[in-house]
Design a protein that fits this description.
Two copies of one chain form a homodimer. By secondary structure, chain A is α/β, with parallel strands linked by helices. In chain A, 40% of the residues lie in helices and 11% in strands. In chain A, the strands form two sheets. Chain A has an eight-stranded mixed sheet with strand order 3-2-1-4-5-6-7-8, sandwiched between helices. The first copy, chain A, is globular and about 85 Å long.
Chain lengths: 507, 507
């Protein structure tokens, strides 16, 4: 079943074989790329590779997306073969490229048949590698779900052509290519008697969910590294064939460990910068300071401070909430170091607990336990106007409220339901939901929420603005009309008494 | 005595009075700005204000720099009155502006006479406010040297014209203008019976030692805030009169606490970003990764990652080594919060200990205690090709080496001596010093060190490259010639065995 509720029957092995015979026929005589894993990254990468053209205007590759014939994954294969992107995205080009590849140029298809790897000149690895638990208390508790990756690599080793390039795009603990993946590939190839030089490289993507999804693959920087010279050369030639490397020249690093570390470091840096500002958020709120305005005033310093993060509700997504854990796991398990990524890991913990600060503000406004309080939470995804709910901080927030017995309803401008918490009431009508709530929490700055006016509030409520959704003029008007407000990073609201009942509320 | 060893006699009170009578005569009928404190910031700010011109081309202000008639400070007054910048700077414009103001347009002078404040339309406060100890173990240990600032403010309150604007530029704990400075000014003014509205504002500078010293005041962003509307308005008009606010529009914040916090936050962010990368430095060195190259590959992401810091030797200067301590002091003492700036303070500690990592690398290369080892440390300042030694990390490094009994000599391309450690032998001749050392430590990437070639090493030595002074080609040549090398953030050197004796050193 796909996230939008549509079901597809997983086909029988015979049906898969029959389908694959057709793929094999179409792929004959062509350069074949197999993309392993049709998730957020793999499906988009497959679309971009299928769109690559030779100087003569012909499709450069025949692209086969491979995923598992399981109830949890098969829908992605079915979706692609219907000519649709498996992931809902505000970037229309994603869906268009898939449709074009499947239906027009007919050089893109998907299958679960393992024999696909036998056809590949290049296998691109985009399978998931997740941690068991993102909310670990200590470095020693970090655990990875490695078996899926290992099984995926083993299939490749068993099936791959001896001279094919294996390009790992999955975010892995650094050292994984050389210490985890290479041994598995070698073992499977040796078992088959393959003696040719193995081509193995790592090149990480920087896919951004949102309106520039496809562009974030094709027109963006890429870093890569091979386990040796020939591998690096093969990776460079392949990346060159579908990325705009004229505008974004490729960067080669010394070895895959460096490339793997770069990806994790990049995301850890972002996570650390967010955690840093959270400490100052709490400070600003107690000293009357509008931290949003302060950060704005500092971000004018381009090149040194323009990436300073704003206060906020929390951090979501697949990467920023876990990549630092991969780094520590590497240090401990792959390199047997007793080095602790102290500040880096603390940052992850701070970010994980960040939504609980919005809960604390709500408690403060309510002045009593939240039991029975009707709370409307506006925003379930983790990015404004993007329908991506993976590890959304709203999960942590809502779970905490439910635990206290609050009556929570959620709304999200870009969603019809909340896949991760289907049991939580999901409001279809924002106005009605607002009229039935004691407290409204703005978690995500979706455009719809930012456009709300004081007139859209049919009654005085408690408002927690966790993401600068309500500007000062609106806040003043809401307060004058009897609402009480607190905002994350908005010390000036408390200084102005917006958290107290207005002395003379308008009728 | 000035830092370059030239002595000036502190004049008698009578001589000061006589000199001031002359200043008073010249200032008569003019708009007067008094800059309090002629240190790194005040002297440059005075130069820039003196260079301001009216639309008619006349000097906008008569500028009086005021400092103390003490053995530690009087030389600054004497220097300025001779027509020279008190601070050595690679920015020739600094010296030129002082000379022009003092000798040509004759609207700039310096004095220790407190009566100067009686003449001022605007008093700019640029006195120092330092912590007692930067290397504190816990937040509770943070202490400020507040008496100097308080005395300075008290003099202003006692002498100022009732309608003068007091503009604080000193980096202060947030809340200081409203909770420390305002009460002192009020007290002194009330004692005099002054009842006029007090004009008080905060506007922080972003002076950068180096070749763009003057430009970093005149052509750069400024943030300000007043204690009330009239104060903010007066501050804006004044800043507008000498800063290029057309290219760099002023930013007003809600109150001085916000402006004071912005300054400290800005520097704390920088310090935190440096500390963050240090954790990864240790990781890279043990996993064969060249972190310099990795950071380069990540910094291509403009607007999010282009300010990522490189590995290095440590952090120096007046601000980044202390400003976070001011923030914690504020929270604890001015706002009575029990909030701990946890990650922010840890970052300062990490940065403070960072030079000891270079010491650890040296220990590793030496394979024995450092007692008796002849170590040449190249680089005493904290910025490349800038003669600024304030809180240089070389202090921490050299102190640690001396404690172990190493025979340390220092060299610095931009200095003739080391004011903070006059007892440490200072080499005038780099080549000779290198020929007499067992180990050479490159602490600062001065151009002279970066231009060294393997031929400049007359003998095989141990090399610690703490700041990417030696590129890989040179490192390979040095290693082949029998030297052994380790570099901060340069795991690939260890992977290549540069820390071991070359199997076949060239003769």
């Amino acid at each position: 079943m796909a996230p939008d509720g549509v079901s597809f029957a997983v086909p029988s092995p015979e049906a898969i074989d029959a389908q694959f015979a057709e793929i094999e026929r179409r792929a004959a005589g062509r350069k074949v790329v197999v993309v392993q894993g049709l998730g957020f990254v793999g499906s988009a990468v497959a679309a971009v590779i299928a769109a690559a053209r030779t100087p003569a205007g012909e499709p450069t590759y025949f692209v086969i997306g491979v995923d598992l014939a399981t109830p949890g994954s098969y829908w992605k294969i079915a979706r692609v073969n219907e000519g649709h992107a498996p992931i809902a995205s505000p970037d229309a080009e994603f869906d268009r490229l898939i449709a074009e590849g499947v239906q027009e140029s007919r050089n893109l298809c998907a299958t679960s048949a393992e024999r696909a790897y036998e056809l590949a000149d290049v296998v691109v690895v985009d399978v998931q590698l997740d941690v068991v638990d993102r909310a670990v208390e200590s470095a020693a508790d970090i655990q990875l779900r490695l078996s899926g990756l290992e099984a995926a690599i083993r299939v490749i080793g068993r099936r791959m052509r001896p001279d094919a390039l294996v390009l790992v795009e999955t975010t892995v603990p650094f050292g994984a290519c050389e210490r985890l993946i290479l041994p598995v590939l070698r073992e499977e190839r040796e078992r088959r008697g393959v003696t040719e030089l193995l081509l193995l490289a790592h090149a990480y993507e920087r896919v951004m969910p949102g309106p520039r999804y496809i562009s974030s693959i094709r027109k963006f920087w890429r870093t890569y590294a091979g386990i040796d010279g020939p591998s690096a050369q093969a990776a460079r030639a392949f990346l060159d064939s579908f990325i705009d490397t004229e505008s974004f020249p490729l960067r080669e690093l010394g070895d895959p460990t460096a490339s793997e570390m770069a990806k994790i470091l990049e995301n850890s840096y972002r996570a650390a910068n967010i955690a840093f500002i959270h400490e100052w958020t709490l400070l600003a709120e107690r000293t009357g300071v509008n931290l949003w305005e302060v950060v704005d005033s500092i971000r004018v310093r381009q090149g040194t401070h323009d990436n300073m993060r704003y206060p906020g509700f929390g951090v979501g997504g697949y990467c920023l909430t876990k990549d630092s854990l991969l780094a520590q796991w590497s240090a401990t398990h792959l390199f047997k170091m007793d080095h602790l990524l102290d500040v880096t890991l603390q940052a992850l913990g701070i970010n994980h607990r960040m939504p609980l600060h919005a809960r604390d503000l709500l408690r403060e406004l309510a002045g009593q336990p939240l039991k029975g309080l009707r709370v409307l939470v506006c925003g379930v995804s983790y990015l404004p106007d993007v329908a991506d709910t993976r590890n959304s901080p709203t999960e942590i927030f809502v779970d905490a409220l439910l635990e206290e017995g609050a009556a929570v309803t959620v709304h999200d401008s870009s969603l019809q339901f909340w896949p991760e918490r289907p049991q939580v009431p999901f409001a279809a009508d924002l106005a009605q939901a607002m009229s039935e709530a004691d407290a409204v929490v703005f978690a995500v700055p979706h455009g719809e929420y930012r456009r709300l006016t004081p007139a859209d509030f049919s009654r005085a409520v408690m408002v927690i603005d966790a993401n600068n959704v309500i500007d000062d003029a609106k806040a003043g008007a809401l307060h004058a009309a009897g609402s009480r407000l607190l905002g994350v990073g908005k010390g000036h609201w408390r200084k102005r008494g917006y958290d107290q009942l207005s002395a003379c509320p308008k009728s």
